[in-house]
Amino acid sequence: MKNDQLLITNGIVLDPNRQKPEPLEVLIAEGKIQAVGSGLKATAPQATILDAKGGFVTPGLIDIHVHLREPGQEHKETIASGSAAAVAGGFTTVCCMPNTTPAIDTDTQIEFVLTQAARTALCRVLPFGAITKAREGKELAELRLMHEAGAVGFSDDGCGVASAAVMLKALQYVKMFDGLISQHCEEPTLSGGAMNAGTTAIRLGLGGIPAVAEELMIARDLQLNARIKARYHVQHISTAGSVALIRRAKQHGQNVTAEVAPHHLLLTDTACANYDTHFKMNPPLRSQEDVQACIEALADGTIDCLATDHAPHAREEKELEFDRAPFGILGLETALALYVEALVTPGHLSWLDLIRKMTAQPAAIARLKDRGTLAAGSLGDITIIQANEKWTIDPEKSFSKSRNTPFAGRTVTGRVAYTILGGRIVYDSNGGIASTGK
């Protein structure tokens, strides 16, 4: 039975709206944040008191780029299993991409995802709609209808919109209702390879995807959007050249945001040396120079937020030859600890800055005004983190239906202790997943 109140005690509050970490209590009532302060007391007779034991108490983490595979690819993931993985990773809101089978390219498909999420999800699931019909890049999908049905943005993720004319129309159209275009930047005539174009690819005899394939599409879209000024977001940025383009565009006042995934902050293309398909992703792992550029761009604000690009695949698919195996890796359950390793431990970001890029910043990009903060009246979505807890990544214990991660066996620091949705505990690192998110 859902309690009226939840009081979180003995935690260190990390709220992007506050200037520094503070030891405070958090009171949630009727599913929303009621107060954050010192000496708070629960007033409901059946209130739950949760001892955070010195952990960080943060807004629920938000991921604006995940693949939940439903409809049509349920052997890889479902909304139910993907949301279970999400709450185990501390995420209370995830935005799912439309490269399903069939593509999420109509208001009916948007409604299906939202209905299925209401039935089975442990976290809040918000769908992106496709930019073009069937993600074929030829004709705009019904963007306005999908927006009105609940789509938080539009993407043909998995492939970029190749036609400049189609992208121009998309930007012009979404501008009319302040919609968001989220672009997978990959110029298709330069694509078709299996990994980053470079010396490792040459040595392995594999076709390469050059950095310029990403950079050309970003440059084109920024040019197209310079006068339109629609909301334009670059997904999973991976190259130093892309960073430079976005930095320059922001300096000139362009309406552009960007995200980066954990693997592009920790790994390089040399990890592919043994043909291990767990290191195959798109965009591909790049050079150390690219990794460093992305880290610096996070520190200076050029890259706005962090996203997992959680991409589950069945075991037998990843067991194919490197050039035939699908792109993508799991991300939801390991993201926080990997970001700590890449960004906090080396001193590139503070814990508060990290949480901002995993909460307030993605909320701002997706226009989710009721989350990403612990301000009174916000959704009672909370993540409690034990910052110094060490653990070893074991994909066999994943809540996802898939196991495809390159980080198996890696010892990491920083673990989610509790995930709270609307004042209800849906994940406890000791007790596991709640039976239902409702």
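^ that was protein a. below is b, sequence first then the tokens
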Amino acid sequence: MSFSSRVKDELSRQLSPARHCQIAEMTAILTLCGKVQISQNDRYRVKISTENAAVARKYFTLLKKTFNIGTDVSIRQGAENHRSRIYTVCVCSHEDSIRVLQAAKLIDRYGQVEENLSLAQNVVIMQNCCKRAFIRGAFLAAGSISDPERFYHFEIACASEAKAVQLQGLILAFGLDAKIVKRKKYFVVYIKEGSQIVDILNVMEAPVSLMELENIRILKEMRGSVNRQVNCETANINKTVSAAVKQIEDITFIRDTVGFDTLPENLQEIAGLRLSKPEATLKELGEGLEPPVGKSGVNHRLRKLSAIAERLRETYPGPQA
């Protein structure tokens, strides 16, 4: 089971105790994957279709708990993928359909279906707890989360821009940076920051999935930190080795051209020590001198030797036979 499926499974089993939150969650599912059918004699039917059994189970449970109404549930094979299944939950009774639509504020007092909800006016999502429930239902109906082992991406696809803007506003109300992008015929509300996806899981009240994502994030950050440290140490080692090789080349050139006797005593000492200890660090070289010298002092002497070698190369084409 994918991480996204595990999140939906957890959310499908979480039921708000308050009726108004149950209505808000049901409303989100209905507006994002539902249809209102009106017959020629103005009889209403309300149904949702989904490929996720957890979503169908949650919608069925919400209708039963909130309205105590019966529903027809059917399962059929997907048209494009024969291994997939389409779950349909239908409220076939006209009276029950009207009750559902009125509770969700999807029908006005004249019996006209209102396609889009208004953040400012709709009482279904006025309270914070109801906003949480609505976001939870929207994710169940049309959302997905990428595998956090690979990358971080949370999204909910909406059929219209108005619905996407409404959903974005709800998410923004919790201080999260949700954006909208048009993808084919859908308007997708998405979050890409790992820490913010953790926060949206908290908003939707999915503590188990939240902890799983946090554990993955911690491990990924630890691996990244270790890799950066290893890369940094490797770079430092390469830099140290390259510097030591250049120092030995310079010292060898001086020895093979004019000899160490032409050097001051302190440079003779460090030159001989570097040749005898090619793998030693500056600190180790300094500790091997008498009296001991700090890293900056050792580096200063080696720079002097390098400058002498460069001047000699202008006079001598290479080591003398």
